[in-house]
Amino acid sequence: MSRLFIFALFLLNHVSSTSHANPLTISVEQNNVFLEALLPELLNDVKLEAKIITIPSRRALVELNEGRIDANGLRLRILEERYPNIIKMDEPVLHIDFIAITKRDDIIVKSWADLAPYKVAYPAGWKIFDANVPASTKTTTVNDHMQLFNLLEIDRVHIILLSETIAHSLLKNRTDHPFRFLYPPLHSTPSYLFFHKSRQEEAHKLAEALRRLKANGAYDQLKQQTYTQ
């Protein structure tokens, strides 16, 4: 039984004491352990039910815009201009650093332009990388985040691009890994949950719940616990 399936069952059971006629379906990105820890707290606070799934990033946008799922995250600010039926929860969930990762000691990356000479891989559907990686760069996109590290480890690519939080969560059990995280980040930005416009009321309730968690210190405590496990 997959960890994500168990997580979905936990959410449904955790809030089952308060019924909702039409539970949310939320698609979450792979390996975001903080979001997986945060969502039960938010849903329980506002007495909402949810089913949590993971679908590929690009497809998730289409399904959200068409109303086949109710929410998706984490994503950036840019989506509302491109998808008319999508609204943003008006409280950022997490500030994300997008970084380059390599095995080689001689690679220095301080800007997007520095990627041009190398073979680069990143997650399919991540618009931040589609928009900023130089057109001349030889790129590979994959749907599975761990596959990025596999490509890097067998020298199929020189650099992979990922969010720092997801990279750390994937490598948390590998203390002897050969990978170098390159700083400064290529980009830092707040990230959000996005909702279909028919779920505006739920989006507002969850934003208020998130603000309460930040105000009472529970958010910082949860983040510290998540990233030190």
From TrEMBL:
Keywords: Signal. It comes from the Bacteria. Residues 1-21 form the signal peptide. This is Solute-binding protein family 3/N-terminal domain-containing protein. It comes from Terasakiella brassicae.
